[in-house]
Amino acid sequence: MPRSINYRPSLIDELITNERLNSYASVFKHADDAELVGAYIWNMHVCASLYPLLTTAEVTLRNSIDTALTRSLGRFWWSQNRLHYKSFSQGRNEPFVVSAIKQNFSKAFNQVTRDKRDRYSIRNARPTHHEIIAKTEFSTWEFILDHEFMGPNLIWPAQLGSVFRGVWPTSRAANMLSSTKDLVKTIREFRNRVSHHEPVWKRFSVHTEQDAITHLHEKIDKIKQLVLLISPEKEQLVIRSGLLSSAERMCSISELRRFQHNIETVKIKSIAKLSKLSQKASDENAVKKIVLYKYGKTQFLLHPD
């Protein structure tokens, strides 16, 4: 049992560190070290549940932009000066977003060639369009939403409707571009925290457990908003595949308590009681812990689909 583990000095003081757990101790209720570490482990599971949503948002945005620009500018549209920008002037330094995009595509090209060399012993590989796109950093697709690419004979607003096929929050293309870039930046920065398994519930205004849960659900809503803006069909896939409900379920007080070993165990003595509890788990989108005694004591977790 988790409460029988010796958490100090080795586990907490040396391997997890008090510095890391201090932020948890100030926000999450805990009666002992087992519950404190439980909150820390809950955060790991939160990260794991959010990652598929974040990956979906990134890949959906990336492929939607690439599809539209490939149709308009051709394959390898980022090369040979085909991606024009507003402030271009002969002899003038490129703005940051333009040089950053070029650097990102250069890094993606080099990464593909390294992977082919290291994994398959292929030297002098010629990466394909899709191989390069797949290796680009998330920031590429934030930078390309910059107003540098907005104007006559530029990619925006001409391709905006092709990339974002959902209902726009505004009818003005310039406002749409700005708000979407801000949304992508928020999601990208959150993705970076999740990728490093940082305390993803943290921000300056989080002081209580409920604050932490509210913050996480705000981020989930942002991800859902971006996917819906790009493709209502993709949003339905996220919902019907259970990715959204899994993340929402994990980002809850009840799941926090489960990892703190404070979840109620329900004794099941009949199929009727099991059916009733199953319906409750589904209605609440919550995990239930059950125990059966027919063939000795056996414990299970009942997860809604």
From TrEMBL:
Protein name in UniProt: Tiorf34 protein
Pfam families: Abi_2
Annotated source species: Rheinheimera sp. BAL341
InterPro entries in the record: Abi_system_AbiD/AbiF-like
Taxonomic classification: Bacteria, Pseudomonadati, Pseudomonadota, Gammaproteobacteria, Chromatiales
